[in-house]
Amino acid sequence: MTEMLSSKAVEGGITSAERVVEHPAWAALKGAVEAIRPAQSKDGSVDFEAPEAPARSAVEAELERVCAAVRELTPSLPHDAAYHEALVADLRRWAADGFGVPDFLDSLLAFQPAQSREDGLQHLVVFPMYTQNGNPDRNLEAVVLRMVWPDWLAELERTRYDNPLFCGITFEDFTSGYDTNSAVLFPETVAVREAPPRFSWGGIFCDREAARFRRVVDAACDVTSLELPEEAHGLVTDQERCQQTFVLWDMVHDRTHSHGDLPFDPFMIKQRQPFWMYGLEELRCDLTAFHEGVRLAADGYPQGRDVQFAVLLDRLFRFPVTGERNRNYDGLGGQLLFAYLHQHDALRWRDNKLAIDWDLAREVTMRLREEIETLYRAGIDRPKLVHWFKAYELVAAYLSPHPGSTWAKGPDALDLSLPPRKLVDEVLPDEFPLSMFYEALAKKLRSVIASTKGITAQTPALAAA
Q1: What is the average pLDDT across 31-60?
Q2: Where exactly are the structural domains of the chain?
Q3: Which sign, positive or negative, has the C-alpha torsion 82, 87, 92, 93?
């Protein structure tokens, strides 16, 4: 059975049954942050000379409300005491320095959620930051979150999937920057004077991932007349079970970026790559999670079967039709998985109905993973440009390139005297356009995709499901 979140108390602090967001100080803090945000520029500073800028005294007063609320909430969150102390100091230094570009390095270093990954533990987090897939500006944001770390997951991390920096988290409440499509809390997004030598945590909101998965997959099954097996249907209709599926998927995915045959790692080494390379990297990590899901299911973990369904359904339905088509590498990975399953007879679209042979789909998905792994293993012996072309060939074997693509014409069509990074300019924004199936699906799901902005497990329509 899927394990529910525990209700045990954190020693000396708030119990998981009590919610920080129900404390009056949270409402005061949230209101003050929302009052400061409109005054900030893209880099997080406040220009008091700008037209319609608030008086500095007004911003200072709101900032003091934030500091007072943080101090009022700290006794309920003793595990965050050192962070909150550094946070108040950073806030007041920002004000004393005239609200220039904020620097919250000291408080960022003091926030260490991965050191106490206790199931149900809450955190109050306040930083000037952008929210990935959300707000691109470094506005002040506040979020109350809860750790998802059931005993079975902790044991898997300890014995099979070492990932000491990973934090599965859920939303309790948040300011405007998270009323978006952002489902991550990453230290890299915080405004600091200098990057620390290494980051010591990374959080992924499994409740938002689960909620949008459930809404989109439910709608997609309706549109395509896909009949889900009972196990998959149970996953799609159970928010708690779905959250725990995603936290396992994310934990394995996250560690895969630094495991295996790695001729490059686009997320660890800053280098310019064609976007299909990022698409293959993300797909490789997801298919590794799928592979581990098969192994876990064989070892008696029901979450392993759930991860398999989640990877297939999210990749097939949500990824290809979400976001803009401009170098959409996640969308590309979903398209590739669909085409691979279709061309190996694991998936059929006939009479306007979608059908999946789930047993064959499992076998075929594992084969696609093997093709990508083979590409990676060979990559270390190849020059970068040759490796890019081999990766292009793999994708183009299943997806049709744009008719106007220069890369599709092969090396003779490119100026190979240029360094590889310059040849990235020849990649079309939509190098592998959507198929007719996905063009039609995108139109049918457009409003559903839009409705997942800001979604959480507490979203009324979802909570009632």
Answers
A1: 97
A2: 20-200, 208-463
A3: positive
Tell which phi-psi region holds residue 44, choosing left (phi > 0), alpha (psi between -120 and 50) or beta: left
- Specify the pTM: 0.93
Reported as a single tens digit per residue, the pLDDT across 350-409 is 999 999 999 999 999 999 999 999 999 999 999 999 999 999 999 999 999 999 999 999
Q: Which residues pair with 356 in a beta bridge?
A: 347
Write the single-letter amino acid at 272: R
Collapse the DSSP code of 316 into the 3-class scheme (helix H, G, I; strand E, B; otherwise coil) and give the result: helix
Looking at beta carbons, which pairs linking 105-111 to residues 24 or more positions away fall under 8 Å? 105/192, 105/193, 105/194, 105/196, 107/83, 108/187, 108/190, 108/192, 108/196, 109/196, 110/82, 110/83, 110/85, 110/86, 111/80, 111/83, 111/187, 111/201
- Strands 166-174 and 202-205, how do they pair? parallel
Element (H, E) at 435: none
Which residues neighbour 156 within 8 Å (Cβ) at sequence distance 6 or greater? 248, 251, 296, 301
Q: Which residue has the tokens 């998936």?
A: 347
For the beta sheet containing 184-185, the strands, ordered from the edge strand earlier in sequence to the opposite edge, are: 122-129, 139-147, 166-174, 202-205, 184-185
Alpha carbon distances (Å) from 361 to 40, 134, 418: 50, 33, 42
Q: Are 125 and 185 in contact (CB under 8 A)?
A: yes
Per DSSP, the three-state class of 138 is coil
Please give the Cα distance from 214 to 456 (Å, whole number): 11
Distance between CA atoms of residues 266 and 259, nearest Å: 13
Are the CB atoms for 426 and 317 separated by under 8 Å? no
Nearest by Cα to 358 from 285, 409, 308, 412 = 308
b/e per residue 242-266 (b: at least 16 CB within 10 A): bbbbbbbbbbbbbbbbeeeebbbeb
Q: Is the dihedral of CA 265, 266, 271, 277 positive or negative?
A: positive
What is the distance between the terminal CA atoms of the chain, rounded to a whole angstrom? Answer: 20
Greatest CA separation for the chain = 68
Q: Which DSSP symbol is given to 226? A: P
| 333: nearest Cα among 363, 311, 359, 303 | 311
| CA 321 to mean position of chain CA atoms | 16
What is the rounded CA–CA span in Å between residue 310 and residue 336? 17
